[in-house]
Amino acid sequence: MNFPILSTLIFLPLISSFFIFLSREKKNNISAIYISLFSSLATFILSLFVWYSMDNASADFQFLEEQAWINDFIKFKLGVDGISILFIVLTTLITPICIISCINSVKDRVKEFLIAILILETFMIGVFCSLDLVVFYLFFEAGLIPMFLIIGVWGGPRRVYSAFKFFLFTLLGSVLMLVAIIAIYWITGTTDVIQIYEIKIPKEYQNLLWLAFFSSFAVKMPMWPVHTWLPDAHVEAPTAGSVILAAILLKMAGYGFLRFSLPMFPLASEYFTPLIFALSIIAIIYTSLVALMQEDMKKLIAYSSVAHMGYVTLGIFTFTKQGIEGSIFQMISHGLISAALFLCVGVVYDRLHSRMISTYGGLVSYLPKYSFLFIVFALAGLGLPGTSGFLGEFLVLTGSFQKNYLVAMLATFGVVLGAAYMLWLTKRVIFGETKNDQIKKLKDVNRSEMIMLGLLALLVILFGFYPVPLMETFSVSVDNLINNYEIDLKTGGLN
Amino acid sequence: MINNLYTLLPEIFLTLSIFSILMVGVFIKNSFNLIFNLTSLIILLTIAIILNSSNNVEKIFLGSFTRDAFSNFFKILILVSSLFVLNSSKNFILDNKLAKFEYPIIILLSILGMFFMVSSNDIILFYLGLELQSLSLYILASIDRDNLKSSESGIKYFVLSALSSGLLLYGCSLLYGFTGSTNFDLISNELNKENTGAVFAMVFILVGLAFKVSAVPFHMWTPDVYEGAPTSITSYFAVVPKVAGLAVMIKFMFIPFSKILMEWQTIIIFISIASMILGAVAAIGQKNIKRLLAYSSIGHIGYALAGVATGVIPGYESAIVYIAIYVVMNIGAFSCLYLLKKDGQYKENISDLSGISKKHPVLAISFLVILFSLAGIPPLGGFFAKFYVFSAVVEQKMYVLAIIGLLTTVISAFYYLRIIKTIYFDDSVISFDATKNKFAQLSILISCSFLLTFFLYPSVLNNAVDILFLN
Prior knowledge:
The structure holds 2 protein chains of 2 kinds.
Chain A (H helix, E strand, L loop, with lengths): L4 H18 L7 H23 L9 E9 L3 E7 L1 H24 L4 H20 L3 H10 L1 H11 L4 H30 L4 H7 L3 H18 L8 H8 L2 H26 L1 H27 L4 H20 L4 H32 L10 H4 L1 H14 L6 H16 L1 H25 L17 H19 L2 H24 L4
Antiparallel strand pairs in A: 1-2
Helix pairs in contact in A: 1-2, 1-4, 2-3, 2-4, 3-4, 3-11, 3-14, 3-20, 4-5, 4-6, 4-11, 5-7, 6-7, 7-9, 7-10, 9-11, 9-12, 10-11, 10-13, 11-13, 11-14, 12-13, 12-18, 13-14, 13-17, 13-18, 14-16, 14-17, 14-19, 14-20, 16-18, 16-19, 17-18, 17-19
Chain B lengths: L1 H6 L1 H19 L4 H21 L5 E3 L4 E3 L1 H20 L1 H6 L6 H18 L3 H19 L6 H32 L4 H7 L5 H17 L8 H8 L2 H24 L6 H22 L6 H21 L3 H26 L2 E2 L2 E2 L9 H4 L1 H15 L5 H15 L3 H26 L13 H16 L6 H7 L5
Antiparallel strand pairs in B: 1-2, 3-4
Helix pairs in contact in B: 2-3, 2-6, 3-4, 3-6, 4-6, 4-12, 4-15, 6-7, 6-12, 7-8, 7-12, 8-10, 8-11, 10-12, 10-13, 11-14, 12-14, 12-15, 13-14, 13-19, 14-15, 14-18, 14-19, 15-17, 15-18, 15-20, 15-21, 17-19, 17-20
């Protein structure tokens, strides 16, 4: 295939954002919204086409593109495999939803907001497509700029603090990864991921390099104890910003572990497994407890995200087929569920301008459709069988039982706690007495909100009952990952 | 002999032009505009002359003057950046009643001094060039002579710089005493590690050079001079002498001191780390943009010196690429300052930028691009500058330097973000006059499009720099 389909996928949003920049319309910004919606839908369809035309039976990277870039040594290399394509589709699915959501929630500087979202989409797709460490780093870091602006310009009262915290935390983690990337270049002579897989990094370097990558991914994931930027960023970000943050930006780290840490530093990954397990367990249990005590809906969901990401890291580092497949599935499903939950909060926030749980109560009598959707997502969030949330957690736990009973036992407590905070949230927001008179005047979800939430609800339930399309896509790639990992462990990383 | 003069053509042309326009200025009243335009023309012609001359190494006047790819590259960089700095600041000069005809002429004189600095292959010629450059800069710093701050900054710069020149000269004389020659090539042959006296000489020379590029711990003059001098001069200070200073530093490491590289390296590593840290930390508390840019320039020199500290050619090349991108960023940043005009007054406080994104969206987005680039965030040009430098540093296994350097970029990101915060997050306070400063806008446009599209062809500068060290 000669047509550079991945580059098109990456740069389509960027080019359309340029057109939005040029569009001059004072009223309503209708043209800007249509351009962005159209281009993001086109990107989505293109990504579906890539997914459809991919060969699932092969673990190789497909749709490879290569171009000389820096000094003939570093190539601009793109490609997808069964793991990354799902994240690309998730990105391109969430972006139009964000654009629809901003029709209701963003009131000023709509044009700039859309530009920021589309540029961010470019960087996010770039992260999942890149097969070169430097290209990956470029996209990974570049995403900070639009997100910083989204939080800072359109955010809530403490937006400045949150935006700075988000930016500096992530940057601090990432610069160490940059040192590691440069070091890898001088050790192996290339930054091409596929070549590094074959060359194999010598044992003595692996631990340090792994830690450098870990410092970046741990912040982005976020893992306990560097998760503190996430609740702040989520709370202050506008709805669309929270959605992208939760649904996609957090997945970059999980993807990074799968794409880089595991295959490139297998010995170090094995060595540091206890560390990851400990941090994951703390994340699952501690942040679930913290989530229980939150007064703010967005903060509660933010902490629940940290807990869910704990399952993801746990699953990845079990190195079992169930564990890794479970964590990929968990990432996709969390992308849908957390996006939907933040949208749900956004819906009532647009009407009452409060995120406090105490403002609400008894919504079920006045907003029946909304309450139904909210309950669906809350149940999916706690992992009810029949929703996509269940399958991910179940597979991760199955995987971790094979590895370590104690860890799996402790992680299972997280499921109970998850049920506790989600159900309690539902009870306080949806059911109970209506204390606030304003609630009685609220209108139920309008058409655009119905489209977004309904679509996500359908997907959550669909993947809960029929996960085969997702599983089939990444199954071979995961097998390959585990095989290579085991071979590496046996040979001690020697080539 | 005639051939020798041909090699020297750019310098001769520059000198003669300076004399002629000086005459024009003396005899024609109110000739600032004429002289200014002539200066731009002279700069353009000099660029043309240098582009036409060959890149082969030629040493003339008993090997005291070299013309090679290295010197040609730096001369063009100096000329192009002066051209942009000068033209984008024209409105500022006129508005602030600095329109004296000597202004562009002195700039040309300092350029001439820098030409001799980068071309010199002999201590004496080097020192003469350096002094010509410095004397011009003293005058420039205090050119707004009725302004107390400007005069103060001129005096301050003069006193401290004279001291550093003294040290440098002392170093030169020691070097001559211990090696018996003033020629770089001969010194290089004579020097070795046992020659302790020469190591002393090297330290003194390094102090002088570090002062000129405002590296820590010889940076004290920078913030005051940057703040006190008129913005048009500050932008010249921030860009052009740094380029020349770095070129000379690389030249000294590459030719005369190549045999005592270890001793050089230790000091430069220290200077580099200290500059990076100070540049990052001290800028945090600043309220004046020019002062902030002063500290930021100290930090940036630290990064460039990290490339020099590697002591190998890829490192020098990365430092040159770094300084070239730094020049582009700073020209853009200062051009933005020329647009911050309110009721005839140019604003220089960060708080004056408050909320300009609402009323001046294009200016705001340009500032945003330049500031993120200064912070070194991909995919902007500033990131690649840092990437090349640290790539060279890591290649030499100087991991500590690389890690400290990258951690300071995080700290420095904080204060760049603070300006962006003021521009984008804060409420709008003032709206600036609609200025018709076409050239400043053009420089901003060029600078931003360079930084934004750099990632498409990131090796374009490397290819240009690759040929500099062939001989």
